[in-house]
Task: inverse folding
């Protein structure tokens, strides 16, 4: 699995690059805003972006900011023309659906992806919250799709919390194991047969599975990645999956188990990936046990 860092912070990108495991970077307008606020105007935004591009020899996603497909295509071409010459690694991020109100057009994103992919500009289709969005993005020619698994877990967790009168913090994990158990019991089919918006499911505890966004078949953020992976495999799509909006190490591990092509991970989560108490404990005892004769050999 390729590892991207989900940040526009130059220090974080340089540090992650120095570890020798970084394959790419994803940014969005919120991450750029955060990075610019933190850098306190040390350089222009244009130079900042150029430095990100030259630091990493892998795809760097830059997002458009419009909602109309023609404007998105224009912005994407501008980003590509301005920055791709730096290191030949610009990928343009296009939201799968830019509509914010009921009367807005739901296909602006898909139309922009089709136009850009036909003109050879690689697209990372972002804000994917359900498998059908990924299917349409892949059909439109997206090079990558980014399912936001953390935000889906946030949503489910909040709804479960509301139901139970509890307030689960953001780091609380929505259990993929439960999703797998429900799948193994063929509960999805039953949900479909019942045709209900939501059901109460009795396991060790009562769990309410909510029908978010018209598709009751996806049971967690990681489950969404699994479903997209199945769909892409069924139809031999070349589109790669970037598991995005990751909150925890556990989500990274489960995306790797599924076989997601890429995970874009916050710097703070990548930092934790080598850490284990027993590793530190073992390290201490190995260092304590080094005998002088062995030290001599090591000194060469
Ligand atoms: O790559 C997507 C990501 O930046 C969104 O993450 O944590 O804001 O849901 P988050």
Result:
């Amino acid at each position: 699995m390729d590892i991207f860092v989900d940040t526009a912070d130059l220090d974080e990108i340089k540090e992650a690059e120095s570890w020798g495991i970084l394959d790419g970077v994803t940014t969005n307008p919120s991450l750029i805003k955060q990075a610019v606020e933190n850098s306190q105007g040390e350089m222009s935004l244009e130079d900042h972006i150029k430095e990100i591009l030259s630091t990493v020899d892998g795809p760097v996603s830059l997002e458009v900011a419009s909602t109309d497909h023609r404007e998105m295509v224009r912005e994407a071409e501008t980003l590509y023309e301005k920055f791709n010459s730096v290191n030949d690694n610009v990928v343009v991020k296009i939201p799968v659906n830019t509509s914010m109100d009921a009367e807005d057009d739901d296909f602006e994103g898909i139309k922009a992806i089709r136009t850009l992919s036909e003109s050879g500009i690689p697209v990372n289709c972002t804000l994917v919250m359900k498998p059908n969005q990924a299917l349409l993005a892949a059909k439109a020619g997206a090079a990558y799709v980014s399912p936001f698994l953390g935000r889906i877990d946030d949503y489910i967790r909040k709804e479960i919390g509301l139901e139970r009168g509890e307030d689960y913090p953001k780091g609380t994990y929505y259990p993929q194991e439960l999703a797998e158990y429900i799948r193994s019991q063929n509960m999805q089919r039953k949900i479909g047969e019942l045709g209900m918006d939501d059901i109460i499911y009795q396991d060790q505890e009562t769990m309410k599975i909510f029908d978010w966004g018209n598709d009751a078949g996806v049971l967690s953020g990681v489950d969404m990645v699994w479903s997209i992976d199945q769909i892409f495999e069924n139809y031999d799509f070349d589109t790669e999956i970037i598991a995005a909006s990751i909150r925890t190490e556990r989500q990274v591990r489960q995306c790797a188990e599924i076989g997601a092509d890429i995970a874009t991970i916050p710097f703070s989560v990548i930092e934790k990936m080598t850490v284990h108490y027993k590793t530190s404990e073992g390290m201490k005892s190995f260092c304590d046990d080094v005998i002088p004769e062995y030290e001599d050999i090591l000194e060469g």
Observations:
- The chain has 14 helices and ten strands.
- The mean pLDDT is 86.
- The domain at 2-150+216-289 is CATH 3.20.20.70 (TIM Barrel).
- The longest strand covers residues 90-95.
